[in-house]
């Protein structure tokens, strides 16, 4: 049970998720500061209000009944900026890397296993043996019975040996 949990943790997905959460939290604070200090003042300027919150409508006498559209715009801007950065910095490059890996794997054919190679060799040997037997049967059937020297006369390196001149006798007889 513990080994399975360890394998799950070391698989990589959990580690990637942990890194993404930490980076997302750190980046979220940067985006929040950006929108609070740059975007909200621009929204308030466009809305013509001095309140940095921007577009807000109070429905009743209580401040709890205020509809703050500026806060909604800020939240939407935070989300759009974070989503765009995560997509262009993390998701898009990872998809390209994955695509390249898949292309590289598809390009080369897989190597045959030892068993496949042995089967191929066996099949080739059987084919050669059957061709050799058929060739010998055709030759004997076409030309009829032949003596051994005639049968192998057309093949190089076979047949009768050429006549050699007699060797001189270099041994001396004891009488001579």
TrEMBL record:
Transmembrane intervals: 12-34, 69-92
InterPro entries: Mechanosensitive_channel_CS (IPR019823), MS_channel (IPR001185), MSC/AndL (IPR037673), MscL_channel (IPR036019)
Compositionally biased region (Low complexity): 140-151
Coiled coil segments of this chain: none
Region described as Disordered: 128-176
Keywords: Cell membrane, Ion channel, Ion transport, Membrane, Transmembrane, Transmembrane helix, Transport
Record has Zinc as a keyword: no
GO molecular function, one term: mechanosensitive monoatomic ion channel activity
Ranges of Polar residues composition bias in the record: 128-139
Protein topology in the membrane: Multi-pass membrane protein
SUPFAM superfamilies: Gated mechanosensitive channel (SSF81330)
Chief location category: membrane
UniProt xrefs under Gene3D superfamilies: Large-conductance mechanosensitive channel, MscL, domain 1 (1.10.1200.120)
GO cellular component: plasma membrane
Pfam families referenced in this protein's UniProt entry, alphabetically: MscL (PF01741)
Keyword Transmembrane helix included in the entry's annotation: yes
Domain of life: Bacteria
Entry's family note: Belongs to the MscL family.
HAMAP family the UniProt entry points to: MscL
Subunit structure: Homopentamer.
Function of the molecule: Channel that opens in response to stretch forces in the membrane lipid bilayer. May participate in the regulation of osmotic pressure changes within the cell.
Protein name per the record: Large-conductance mechanosensitive channel
Source organism of this protein record: Actinosynnema mirum (strain ATCC 29888 / DSM 43827 / JCM 3225 / NBRC 14064 / NCIMB 13271 / NRRL B-12336 / IMRU 3971 / 101)
